[in-house]
Amino acid sequence: MNQHWEDRVTAAWADFDDYAEEDAAAFRAVIDALVAELPEGSPLGSFERACAWDSTGHSDKAVPLYREALAHGLDAADRYKARRARIQLASSLRNIGHADQGVALLTPELDAPSDELDDAVRACLALCLSSLGRDREGLALTLGALARHLPRYQRSMAAYAHALVNPPGGGRER
User: Fold this and answer.
1) CA distances from 42 to 8, 69, 83, 115 (A)
2) For residue 26, is it within any domain?
3) Which of 80, 81, 87, 142 is 20 to 30 Å from 69 at the Cα level?
4) Is residue 145 part of a domain?
5) Closest CA to 44 of 62, 64, 66
6) Numbers of helices and strands, H then E, in the chain
7) What pTM value is reported for the model?
8) pLDDT in tens for each of the 174 residues of the chain?
9) Residue 112 DSSP code
10) Distances from the Cα of 87 to the Cαs of 22, 119, 125, 156, in angstroms?
11) How far apart are the C-alpha atoms of 93 and 59, rounded to whole Å?
């Protein structure tokens, strides 16, 4: 879409916290009005609607919209929003009891070109892994992501993260 439309979407989201919980439908209506300006079938529209449902506590309604956005070419329209869609879809899948699908969705993102969403990928993937009882793997991802931001101890924290899932001697620690 054009920058004016994107600016209005950004402004709507900037006002999101001003809506009371009971005004969730009013916020979704604002997003729906903006989406109505897009060509039918626009992946951006499905993405924004998914975000609105998700942010107002309806992961179950968001999941099919995130999938629709990705299936209809969100990657081609906006790679950054497509990555956000994968992160948010994985989180929503976890919320509705399908953490395994979230892991499958986010694992390839670990090898995607790096951007400011890298840590969000790891955090959400860690939550999905934890929901599956794979806490050590989740903790390793979290420590690995955190290590890059520490003023000191980066090497040791990265090594500890690695050792959580790759202990010396090749066997898994208990």
Assistant:
1) 17, 8, 17, 24
2) yes
3) 142
4) no
5) 66
6) 10, 0
7) 0.91
8) 689 999 999 999 999 988 888 899 999 999 999 999 999 999 999 999 999 999 999 999 999 999 999 999 999 999 999 999 999 999 999 999 999 999 999 999 999 999 999 999 999 999 999 999 999 999 999 999 999 999 999 999 999 999 999 987 765 544
9) S
10) 26, 10, 8, 28
11) 7
Domain count, the chain: 1
**67 lies in some domain:** yes
The set of long-range contacts for 56-60, using a CB threshold of 8 Å and a minimum separation of 24, is: 56/24, 56/25, 56/27, 56/28, 57/24, 59/91, 59/92, 59/93, 59/95, 59/96, 60/92, 60/96
Give the tokens for residue 155. Answer: 């090497």
CATH of the domain at 67: 1.25.40
Report the pLDDT value the prediction gives residue 64, as an integer from 0 to 100: 98
In this structure, what token pair is assigned to residue 38? 């897009």
Please report where in the chains the tokens 């919980």 appear, as a residue.
Answer: 21
pLDDT of residue 20: 86
Pair of tokens at residue 1: 């879409």
Quote the pLDDT of residue 171.
55
